[in-house]
Amino acid sequence: MLARIQVGLKPAFRDSFGVTTCARIKNDLGFKIDSVRTIKIFTVDADISDAQVQEAAQGPFSDPVTQDYSLTPLALEWNLEFDWLIEVGFRPGVTDNEGRTAAATLGLMLGRKLDDAEGVYTSTQFFITGNLSRADMETIARKGLANELIQRFTIMSRDEFSTSGGVKPYAAKVVDNSEARVAQIDLNVADEELVRISKEGILALTLEEMIFIREYLGRPDILEQRRKMGLSEKAADVELEALAQTWSEHCKHKIFAGNIDYEDLDTGKKERIISLFDSYIRTPTAEIRESMGKDDWCLSVFKDNAGVIDFNNEWNVVFKVETHNSPSALDPYGGALTGIVGVNRDPFGTGMGAKLMCNTNMFCFATPFYDKEIPARLLHPKRIFEGVRTGVEHGGNKSGIPTVNGSLYFDDRFAGKPLVFCGTVGIMPSLVGGKPSEDKNALPGDIIVMTGGRIGKDGIHGATFSSEELNEDSPATAVQIGDPITQKKMFDCLLKARDLGLYRCITDNGAGGLSSSVGEMGEFTNGFELHLDRCPLKYTGLQPWEIFLSEAQERMTLAIQPEKLEEFMALCAKMDTEATVLGTFTDTGKFHCLYDGKTVAYLDMDFVYKALPPMEMVAKWQQPVFAEPAFADEPDLNDELAKLLGSLNICSKEYVVRQYDHEVQGGSVVKPLTGVANDGPSDAAVIRPILDSFEGLVVSHGVCPRYSDIDTYHMAACAVDEAVRNAVCVGGSMELMAGLDNFCWCDPIQSEKTPDGHYKLAQLVRANRSLAHYAKAYGVPCISGKDSMKNDYMVGDTKISIPPTMLFSVMAKIDDVRKAVTMDAKKYGDLVYVLGTTYNEIGASEYAVLHGATGNSVPKVREEDSLPRYRALNIAMEAELVSSCHDCSDGGLGVALAETAFAGGLGMRIDLRRAPVDGVDRNDILLFSESQSRFVVTVSPTNEEQFEAAMTGTGLAKIGTVTREEQLVITGLKGEVAVNSSLAELKAAWQATLNF
Amino acid sequence: MSKVKVIVLTGYGTNCETEMAHACKLGGADQIDIVHVSELLHGEYSLDDYHFLNLPGGFLDGDDLGAGQAGAFRFRYATVKPTGEKLLAQFLRFIDAGKLILGVCNGFQLMVKMGLLPGFDNCHEERQVSLTYNDSSKFEDRWVNLKVDEDSPCVFTKGLSDLYYPIRHGEGKFVARDEATMQRVLDNKLVAMRYVDPITGETTTDFPANPNGSFDGIAGICDPTGRLFGLMPHPEAFLNRVNHPRWSRETLPEEGQGVALFRNGIDFIRANLL
Q: What is the 3-state secondary structure (H, E, C) of A566-620?
């Protein structure tokens, strides 16, 4: 039967969700409405009796203390005052986590699992009062309450609602009885036809690649083998789709692996680069490791889902950062949720599997106050912001993983595609079953088992879609919604299986699904045989290629030694984790899929993974020249400082931080918010992975997209420096520090759509060179990374490309967390130092942007100055000579001083004449230049001599003192009072902007 | 039995089990087992073998039907496989034996939704109070000042007064099914812990000192015996001074304020149940 169980908070209770929804409609959409009341609907589609529906309604589906329930419209029963109803529910096939839990609980109540045809589907009713039209309601539904890509909505006036007795029951069930069939695609066709096949199939294969496949399938020896298997020179759809996924930019990283002819048009110098990745990432890491000799603490780099380092002799630490940009543009909530629970599976699927310890994130959006017209298919940046924020909140909090470090960056060029970076650190014992935990290996004869969630059409073409710009044909199915609880249950189970030695190899199902996970694991044995018809499905009607490619979430693929299979399956059954045997790893050299016993893919492993020739690309660099900003001679610096503190890239992110659990697991030491009122901005996180030890892990990051406007070389240099100095700020050791690079670029391949591709590729080359240089200079090896190369939006004539962005994430060790340092001024009378020289480096700074210009003097990293400073600061902190330490980044010295002061609730008297400068003769430049590698440090007078001795020769200057008066007073270069602001004013300016 | 034996229950979305077990260790427990619900249901472990049941924070079943809601029904419907006994029967026998249960955050939500609290008239199966959405409608991670009611029968808070713990929840507003129930909770001094204003030290309903809008600043309640206790703040998140958000600027004792709560429970067991 189909029943609608309606549940709402009793009228006497405050409907907080309704209240905030009402405020959002008013503030974000500008409609004058009076109130919103919400009711939750559970549509039960199951073979159960009326009495059982009643029991479910008053039992698991409602709380008798706080909620009323009804099987008829609750709003009518309540006699609720309203003018309009908007009911929002999911479209068929979209992950409905609450519906899934409801169905599971109903199953427990009935004492039987619901069968595949049964289900529970949720929707939400918004009862709105306000004098508005139906058209207004449609706007509210579309722009505020529902995302039509994944949700549907119904609008009813009060009259319609009461006359028709509410909304008709509707189960969002996928009904698809199509028979499984495998299409055979003829590639012996004209070139234009091959291009069409690729484009219309969202295969993202180039003409050359299509021809390459045709030539392979036509080889006589190959054809003979294929005929024996019932295939031909035509490509089975399973094969073509699998190749498209495996060779996609998203999975194969063709741009980073390809050959580049680079020309510097300014100097005329030409150069050929064989693989950016090998030249600038892999090789420098190998060199750094070699220079560390037997102290090399890198254990597994670039070969697994995440990088692994040796934390101490007992534990290994694993770190990975991913992006999930394209899905987040279409469905910010689902995209970001999938981003975070997706990256969780990387450390979990690394080596023998790591327990997840903390999450990091970094988001790039357009301003939430965007008031220009939104191009077709795009969502308002505030909606993207809120959706992403909520997605990461649910993904992180529900998985029990603290979000310890993050940031937000705003630039309107992220309106076309937001960037959603999500990272996860995991920990595993150094030895699992007596063997190094970072190693894994499948053997021929091992059984292929998939665990966790089921397969649906979610995320089909995710990999290939991410390899194109966002356009009007971008598929809705590319979006998935993560399910943190199914994943958590699976992780609980697999950690036990790991410790019992019940599997030999593990990897995650991410982009490309089984095609990728089974294929890559099959490289250990050189082949596999996979039965697609055995895969557990969410609903019927999936084609074999869809089963193979689906990116449905929460799945791991394992290689189980045959003698352990029974025990493994019994453990999964006990712990309520679905596990299915899908086939066998072989040493036949074949990529072999079957459906109902018939071969539907039969390719050589070498062809799939090794045969593709590298891409040939051209890069041409020319230094752009911008107008210099024109600043007033003597601006009011109180005003300028307050404006900078309130700017989007500098202001407090407390609104976001508080909604993430940053303390679960109990190891939190330096939290994201710190200081006298627990609200100052920490530079980096410090956590204790092992609760009865004081050894700690520091996690930080750096990102500076705007410097790319001038030169990506310096953008990347500054990102590395920022990440490293943030880690140093809290006490992270330069001796045990590892990095991860995440490149997010706009399409750098010259084409009709991208006429400036040569320049964009040159930008990529320069960023890579810079990364290689500074990683080596600092001795910080990259242990993992990822690139996402098509962050453009193109609909009609409108093209929006992101500024080239490299996020650099760092983890470092701190031997004793009790020596960690926070950024807040601690005590009046302490001395204030600035470490590092300030140059006239205002180019692309926040101050320049505030004045509407870019300029040319981009900040540069001078490692010959910074490295000795970082090492000396490590020593000073180890000796406990430092009271507070804060880095100078966006907004420069002025912002760092203000933040240090108000976080500590203490004033400062500063004299700029004492600050080390080079070519700076203006107060505003000195305060707001974004020169790198600088710190504001406070030191107790009792430690003055020792501190100065420790830091000698590293460019330090005592520039003032911490005071009791809550006032920031700065004397300028001419001895005048340049700044005299109360901490309250400065802090208020800093806190007001994103106080949603 | 001369050892204090503690069980920390986990699974289906629980996520504070490690630090809760660590808290019990610091509090002096002799044996601590982190047990997955499925292991309880397969009879591999039994509550009968323990003195102290810890229900840690987390998101049971994703809190999808409301915090702890699906979890409460999972426990209510569950049967222990080998014996066919209802899991709930194990819970009730555990309570009847005078043993201790501590529920933190999601564990507290689970306790009230199962009906274990407030436990009037030794009734532990009917829901009389609940925890609902914060007035802010937001999940928040924030440290709060707390005051212990010295007259409360709660065995966990004996001898404690002012506490500072973090809260990390979206549904922590304590409500009762009617005024009489609320009054009975107050009259019996079951409110062992309240949110207070950091300056005045007085009970408050004002955000953010009271993070969810709970009536009378209610942060945690016990049953009339004082042996069952549930609270929204996380004592297990403050086990060492470096957990404190201002440890780098204040002089604090090495031991975090959360340990005392667990030690009280364990000392009670040593004195009364061994």
A: HHHHHHHHHCCCCEEEEEEECCCCEEEEEECCEEEEEEEHHHHHHCCCCCEEEEE
Question: Nearest chain A Cα to B78, which residue?
Answer: A108
Q: Is B142 in Cβ contact with A489 (below 8 Å)?
A: no
Angle between helices A237-246 and A513-525 (to 10 degrees): 80
Task: Render pLDDT for A246-297 as a digit per residue (tens, 0 to 9).
Answer: 998 888 889 999 999 999 999 999 999 999 999 999 999 999 999 999 999 9
My answer on whether omega of the bond before A614 falls inside 30° of 0, hence cis, is: no
Question: B52-55 and B100-104 as β-strands: parallel, antiparallel, unpaired?
Answer: parallel
Residue A264: DSSP 8-state: E
Q: How confident is the model at residue A797 (pLDDT cuts 50, 70, 90)?
A: confident
Nearest CA in chain A to B142: A658
Nearest CB among B12, B64, B128 relative to A489 is that of B12
The residues that bridge with A408 in the sheet, in sequence order, are A363
Distance of CA A486 to the CA centre of its chain: 20
Instruction: Give the DSSP H or E segment for A289.
Output: helix A283-292
Q: ∠B66-B71-B75 over CA atoms, to 5°?
A: 145
Taking a C-beta distance cutoff of 8 angstroms, is the pair B156, B261 a contact? yes
- Cβ count near B254 (within 10 Å): 8
Nearest CA in chain A to B130: A65
Distance, in Å, from the CA atom of A869 to the CA atom of A728, rounded to the nearest integer, reads 10
Comparing CA positions, the residue from B8, B116, B109 lying closest to residue B55 is B8
* CB atoms inside a 10 Å sphere around CB B135: 17
The Cα of B26 is separated from the nearest Cα of chain A by a number of Å equal to 10
Q: What is the pLDDT of residues A712-734, one digit of tens each?
A: 999 999 999 999 999 999 999 99
Q: Where are the beta strands (DSSP E) in A465-504?
A: none
User: Which pLDDT does position A539 carry in this prediction?
Assistant: 87
CA distance A624 to A621: 9
* Active-site annotation of B, residues: 105, 234, 236
Residue A622's SS3 state is coil
CA distance B250 to B231: 26
Of B19, B62, B140, the CB nearest to A101: B62
Q: Do residues A741 and A322 touch, judged by C-beta distance below 8 A?
A: no
pTM of the model: 0.96
Residues of A in contact with B142 (CB under 8 A): 658, 678
B 50-89: CB under 8 A from A:
57-59, 61-66, 69-70, 73-74, 77-78
* One-letter identity of residue B186: L
Span B237-254, mean pLDDT?
98
| A929 close to A840: Cβ distance less than 8 angstroms | yes
Closest CA to A887 of A900, A875, A876: A900
Radius of gyration (C-alpha) of chain A in whole angstroms: 29
> Which residues of chain B from 194 to 213 reach within 8 Å of chain A, CB to CB?
213
Q: How far is residue A257's CA from residue A616's CA, in Å, rounded to a whole number?
A: 10
Give dist(CA A392, CA A325) in Å, integer.
13
Per CB-CB distance under 8 Å, the chain A contacts of B140 are: 658-659
Q: What is the pLDDT of residues A434-476, one digit of tens each?
A: 999 999 999 999 999 999 999 988 878 766 666 666 666 555 5
Q: Could you please report the per-residue DSSP string of chain B?
A: --S-EEEEEE-TTB--HHHHHHHHHHTT-SEEEEEEHHHHHTTSS-GGG-SEEEE--B-GGGGBTBTTHHHHHHHHH-B-TTT--BHHHHHHHHHHTT-EEEEETHHHHHHHHHT-SS-GGG--SS--EEEE--TT-S-EEEEEEEEE-TTS--SSSTT--EEEEEEEES--EEEESSHHHHHHHHHTT-EEEEEB-TTT--B--STTTSSS--GGGEEEEE-TTS-EEEESS-GGG-SBGGGSTTTTTS---SB-THHHHHHHHHHHHHHHT-
